[in-house]
Amino acid sequence: DVQLVESGGGSVQAGGSLRLACAASAYTYATNCMGWFRQAPGKEREGIAAIYPSGDTNYYADSVKGRFTISQDNAKKLVYLQMNSLKPEDTAMYFCAADGRSVCTSRDPKEYHFWGQGTQVTVS
């Protein structure tokens, strides 16, 4: 059973920073493309970034490129999303997801099979 647990959300002023973390089992971490998604009220879930098990970044959404960084900590089995220069439009529920495969093939949330419960990010 794949379990993903996000943490690190909160409220921040525009221009501030937050770092989200996604905890996964060692097996999940080592064998899955891991992605971060977000969903604002009334909007579709949006892919933000994804990372290969190797640590290579797959992609960043244009809306966050240059401000957000996806990374991983091999020792702690954590996938991070460092968010800088936050804007009010970044306000959303943020989700960590595992693709179910070791290659990152799509930004479509429908292609990701395992999801965390989400963590709220509010930028004012």
Can you tell me about this structure?
With 124 residues, this protein is mainly β. Helices cover 5% and strands 44% of the residues. The chain contains one helix and eleven strands; from the N terminus they run E-E-E-H-E-E-E-E-E-E-E-E. Strands 2, 4, 5, 6, 9, 10 and 11 form a seven-stranded mixed β-sheet that branches. It is globular, with a radius of gyration of 13 Å. It starts with a strand and ends with a strand.
Chart the SSEs and their pairings.
Layout: E1 5-7, E2 10-12, E3 18-23, H1 26-31, E4 34-39, E5 46-51, E6 57-60, E7 68-73, E8 78-83, E9 92-98, E10 114-115, E11 119-123
Parallel strand pairs: 2-11
Antiparallel strand pairs: 1-3, 3-8, 4-5, 4-9, 5-6, 7-8, 9-10, 9-11
In brief, what are we looking at here?
This protein is mainly beta. The protein has one helix and eleven strands. The chain has one helix spanning 26-31; strands spanning 5-7, 10-12, 18-23, 34-39, 46-51, 57-60, 68-73, 78-83, 92-98, 114-115, 119-123.
Question: What is the terminal-to-terminal distance?
Answer: 37 Å
Quaternary organisation of the protein chains = single chain
Structural class: mainly beta
Strand percentage, roughly?
Answer: 35-45%
For the residues shown, what is the average pLDDT? 95
Structure summary, number of beta strands: 11
